[in-house]
Amino acid sequence: MARGRQPTGPGLIRVLAIFGLVTRAGSFRLGPVDLVVPDDRVLVVLGPSGAGKSMLLDTIAGFRAPRHGQVRLGGRDITALPAEQRRIGMVFQDAALFPHLSVRDNVGFGPRLRRRSPTVDDLLDRFGIAHLADRAPRSLSGGERQRVALARALATQPAALLLDEPLTALDQPVREELRDVLRGTLHDLQVPAIHVTHDRDEALRLADDLAILDAGTLRQTGPANHLTRHPTDEVTARLLGWTELGPAHRDIDGLHVGELPIDHPAPILPVAALTVYYRPEEVVIGPAAETSEAALRCHARIAHVLPTLPLARVQLHTTPTITALLLHRELEHLPQTPSLEVEVAIPPHAIRVIRTGGTAGTNTALNSATSPSRCPSEQHTRIPHHD
């Protein structure tokens, strides 16, 4: 749907919609924010620390009053309602369990408070914590506490669910395991869900749709698989794993970054600074590069190999430096003699040329076929595209 257009009709029963939302904390301003989240989509808000992600959730939940704008749930304006009347479940980074209650009583607290009676045992089973039902929160691990917090949020049968970085404080193996549990749970729920994080891997694992937030401003929104391939903004590109190659210039021989020629149809724009970004995992090195379609092709010596996991980092002697991410089994095909050069190729889909120095929402990616395909009718069941 178009940005700012308020959806109407019978399909609104399970839609969370935010229109022109603006809020402040001291000198920090969030917004305006326009988002529409249907019940069959998980929206992940990705941004660095201090971007305003928690402030956005607090405003939607009713813990903070907006300066302007509107929050609607199921077609109903809930902007002025107190938090306890909004039927919005929220899970925080700190599980915030009741220390004097058992796991079972923590999960069942909400249903008793709201005079509901969902099956607590079903939720304990869903999150794999049935064996912990009689334990006190202080005896649980961090991952177990977060499972209890998630179960408690769902026990109230919320009409929408907000998740404020609930996995951030967990160890990596536990965090990865809970991502899978959370992904399945959010889709089984069939309620609008917004999850905020600064972790790119987590965002891409959970998101159907992405909203990139930086310094209180939405930079780009849309389906996650589209934004990952087609960032139109410097902030979006960096947050989604694109690496800056460097500023571009054009001469009679075409587009260049340093000494590297770029075969790219970026137009000549007056008074426009251009920056080239690439995906390190798409860099091809060695014999395969000779036959690969490429927007950037060169020969280079290998400067350094870092055996990081799961992908090794290979730095190349180029100006500017290119870093490739390779599978470890691919390293054995690289020359062992430092003086030998290898062919290097970066395919066209892994190169982005972005106009830099603009404000949020006005930067343009100067790439062919970058516009997202739209549904035949832009209904409320699709987050608006701001690119």
TrEMBL record:
This protein's record includes keyword Hydrolase: no
Chain spans, region Disordered: 357-387
Gene3D superfamilies reported for this sequence: P-loop containing nucleotide triphosphate hydrolases (3.40.50.300)
Top-level division of the source organism's lineage: Bacteria
An example Gene Ontology molecular-function term: ATP binding
UniProt biased composition (Basic and acidic residues): 377-387
Swiss-Prot/TrEMBL keywords: ATP-binding, Cell membrane, Ion transport, Iron, Iron transport, Membrane, Nucleotide-binding, Transport
Name of one Pfam family that matches: ABC_tran
Protein name: ABC transporter ATP-binding protein
Organism: Pseudonocardia acidicola
